[in-house]
Every structure is written in structure tokens, then in C-alpha cells.
Amino acid sequence: SMCLASRADVQRSTLRILERLSGLRDENTGKHTERMARYARAIAAALGCSTAQCQLMRDAAPLHDLGKIGIPDAVLGKAGSLSSEEWDVMRRHTTIGYELLRDQASPVLQLGAEIALSHHERWDGTGYPLGLRGADIPLSGRIVALADVFDALTTVRPYKPAWLVEQAVEQICEDSGTHFDPEVVSALDRKSVV
Q: I need a surface site. Which of 47, 60, 84, 165 has the fewest CB within 10 A?
């Protein structure tokens, strides 16, 4: 009967809804989110995370851009390049996502909050919103940052063709130590995630 829906079922349903909400506000398809989450899980596995941690990463990674639901259409859907004021607004999707998810008891939503907040931080400290550097950036954010960029590079976007996997890996290796955690980069490099 209806009352016997397990907590796990409810949690899975809630996650799907949150993913779809994110998708409504994103120019990319849900397939981006799906692929990116698989890459995140594969990288976590290559870094030696437990099966349970890898699954948690897979489930939480799709929430990385949930905060975009709080960004106005005029900014999110703008065709041209953003002004510096518009960039300030756009960058807020990290903190908005964090605020939406952070006070939930569910481990998946807690990890989602951490990822939402930290996936635009950069290894060299020049990222946002907090300008965290190196190992101060949560591992989940370091993994999702790379998975997100890897998928963006290897798929067609309105402004560019899809790159070959080799080209994408080469670019990511160039950004090792500046944008990306070198250990996360070498995990991607070692293990064919695609």
C-alpha cells in the first residue's frame, strides 16, 4: 500500500525531483548531469573511496547546480557574455544551492550542499565563492569540478563542438595544479572514465 513506501524510496524520489528542478534551469540536458555524476563516481573509485562513498557521490553530484533555480532568467539565459554585475549574480548559484540543501539530515543532501558550494573553487585559490585553496576545498567539490568540466569539453555546446576525450584529458592535465587537484587529475588520467 501507499503507506509502505520506504524512506529509501522517498529519498530516491526527492533526489529525482531536485535533479529535474536543476534541469529546468539549465541549458544542458539531464544527460549532462547523468554523465557528470557517473564520471564523479568513477573518479572517486579511482581515488580509493569506498563503494558506499562512490554511490553517495553519484547521487549527490547531480545537485551541483541546484542553486541555478534562484538565478534570474535574464542572467541565466543571456545569449551574450555577462557583465561583471551579472557574473556576481551567476556565481551566487553556489551559495543558493548550499543554503537550499545544507540543513537536511540526509547524507546525500548534505554532500549535495558541500558540492553545490565548492564545485567552482579552484586548486590555486582563484575560484568562488570562498576562494578556498588546495586541500581546503572538500574532495567532493574537487572531484565534481573536474567531472563537470570534462563533460562540458567532451560534448557539443552551442558555442563549441565536442572535443575528443584525448583532447579533453590533455586540457585538464594542463590545468592540473591551477584549476584542478593534481591527484584528482591523475585519477581521471589513470582510469578511463568514459
A: 84
Q: List, run by run, the mean pLDDT of 10-residue segments along the chain (194 residues).
A: 72 86 73 91 96 96 94 90 96 97 93 98 98 98 97 87 93 97 91 60
How far, in Å, CA of 44 to CA of 190, rounded? Answer: 12
Q: Which residues contact 65 (CB under 8 A, 6 or more apart)?
A: 22, 25, 26, 93, 97, 116
- Looking from the CA of 187 toward its CB, the CA atoms found within 13 Å total 23
Length of the chain: 194
State whether residue 180 is helix, strand or coil. Answer: strand
**Cis upstream peptide for 129 (omega within 30°):** yes
The answer to whether 93 and 65 have CB atoms below 8 angstroms apart is: yes
How many Å separate Cα 3 from the centre of its chain? 34
Give the list of residues 6+ apart from residue 172 with CB closer than 8 angstroms, or none: 146, 149, 150, 153, 180, 185, 188
Residue whose entry in the numeric block shows the C-alpha cell 590533455: 170
41 φ, ψ to 5°?
Answer: -65, -45
The position carrying cell 553517495 is: 56
How far apart CA 86 and CA 20 sit, in angstroms, is 25
Whole-model pTM over 0.70: yes
